[in-house]
Amino acid sequence: MVFINSKKFFFTIVQTYYKDIGKVLEEPINGDILIAYQSPTSQSAALSKKFRTLHIDLSQTKDEILSHFVKNTRYEIRRAQNKDELELTITTEPGAQFIADFVIFYNQFSAQKGLPPCESEFLEALNSRRLLSLSVIKNKTGDALVFHAHIVCNGRARLFKSASYFRGVDTKAKALIGRANRYLQAEEIFYFKEIGLSLYDFGGISLDEQSDDLGGIDKFKMSFGGHPVEEYHCFHPISFFGKLAFLFLKRKWK
């Protein structure tokens, strides 16, 4: 089982992905608090949060997967592929420069959106365990339009971070970026199928109709088909020190 350790103040948080919390707790864990992201069950966890997402079964044929895309999404992908002169890169072995480029691009995007920045140390920790995939799509002059990051583990690729450069561009450029994003998303799904993964995970849906941004993101993800799934982010103290820290942190995690 793969664990990612990170320091928070004076204690160690141990993270794992897509495994049942009950099975994870049977393993030796060297840390203070365990976070099991997207566990199928929550019964063994001291605290859990429901997480809704969309899954695509990658055992389907490419044509079967494509048939579930909405009509306009298929059209946008074809146009991007055939007319927009775009160049894309998808890799499960990103180098240091690729990671640095992603972090710079994403943090510019997150500052515009009021989102937390992406920490390069966490991406590097994922990459050191071969759990990271990075993707970028560029226009014909080599300017990056969209970056995606995925966490790849236990037969699943899960969209982790996505950034597009929309601010300060005109309507025509926005349309190009939208097509590029759809094209990149489709190619990633097919890439992960080709390398033998069994599941594509869109990394969450909000179902928040009151937010234009979140509603737009949900609509984008749903345009690729997939079926809705409920999983759990599970939190569990391991050490004595972790139990003390958990008393304070559980307020934040509820």
Straight-line distance between termini: 26 Å
Question: Per CATH, what is the topology of the largest domain?
Answer: Aminopeptidase
CATH class type of the largest domain: Alpha Beta
Number of strands: 10
CATH architecture of the largest domain: 3-Layer(aba) Sandwich
Radius of gyration (CA) equals 19 Å
How are strands sequenced across the largest beta sheet?
1-2-3-10-4-9-8-7-6-5
Q: How many structural domains are formed by the residues?
A: 2
On the 0 to 100 scale, the average pLDDT is 92
Structural description of this entry:
This protein is of the alpha+beta class. The protein has 2 domains: 4-51 and 231-253, no CATH class; 69-225, Aminopeptidase (3-Layer(aba) Sandwich). It has 8 helices and 10 strands. The protein has helices at residues 21-24, 62-67, 71-83, 96-113, 120-128, 171-194, 212-222, 240-253, and strands at residues 4-8, 11-17, 33-39, 47-57, 87-91, 132-138, 144-153, 156-164, 199-201, 227-237. It has a 10-stranded mixed beta sheet, with helices on both faces. Helix 3 crosses helix 6 (171-194).
